[in-house]
Amino acid sequence: MVFRVAGTGGVTNTSFVAGGYGLFVSTASQTNPVASTANLVSLDTAIDGSSGVTNSSGTITFTTAGVYQVIVELFWTSTVGANPTISQWLAQNGNNIANSTQDFQLLGGANTVQSSTCVWHVNASVNDTLKVYWSCSDTRVSLTYQAALANPTRPASPSAIVALQQVA
């Protein structure tokens, strides 16, 4: 639903937007085999039925044109307690999207898990592709998948989540 604020401070339902959407995850850990190189975030599972977008191993294709909100959440670990800097960014149709790089520093001891969340808006035409990349100078850093756990029983945790929602 799209809402607008009425002149007296109330909220009015103005229309329904049936836009494209998708929720894709990775159910595998993803290593950094070569320092300081671009690593494609692989996505192997569709969690929610999608409309207007498709995914093939991390290459998202837009089948419905529009502006999409893209939320990327990545789960990091390192086998050592160093504090490396990691970059993540988007590429559309094979070209890096200007000003999409987000850098952050992995903190904590060895084998701790930390997440990064970035949100972008992407203007997409039909058949445009979108990819998420990451890079780190330390090959001991990886995206980490966590299997289901017990005591208490809880589900697995993906190494990457990409959610897309058409907003215009």
**Radius of gyration from CA coordinates:** 18 Å
The count of β-strands is 15
The shape is: globular
What is the first-to-last residue Cα distance?
A: 12 Å
Low-confidence stretches: 1-14
Order of helices and strands: EEEEEEEEEEEEEEE
Q: What kind of oligomer do you see? A: single chain
Major β-sheet profile? 7 strands, antiparallel
Query: In percent, how much strand structure appears in the residues?
Result: over 45%
Give the helix/strand class: mainly beta
Helix content range: under 10%
Write down the overall mean pLDDT.
90
Features:
single chain; mainly beta; 7-stranded antiparallel beta sheet; 6-stranded antiparallel beta sheet
Describe this structure in words.
The protein has 168 residues and is mainly beta. The chain has strands at 2-5, 11-15, 21-26, 39-40, 45-51, 53-56, 59-62, 66-78, 85-92, 95-96, 102-105, 114-124, 129-136, 141-143, 160-166. Strands 4, 6, 7, 9, 10, 11 and 13 form a 7-stranded antiparallel beta sheet that branches. Strands 3, 5, 8, 12, 14 and 15 form a 6-stranded antiparallel beta sheet that branches. It is globular.
Brief summary of the model shown:
Helices cover 0% and strands 52% of the residues. With 168 residues, the protein is mostly beta strands.
SSE layout:
Elements: E1 2-5, E2 11-15, E3 21-26, E4 39-40, E5 45-51, E6 53-56, E7 59-62, E8 66-78, E9 85-92, E10 95-96, E11 102-105, E12 114-124, E13 129-136, E14 141-143, E15 160-166
Antiparallel strand pairs: 1-2, 3-5, 3-15, 4-13, 6-7, 7-13, 8-12, 8-14, 8-15, 9-10, 9-11, 9-13
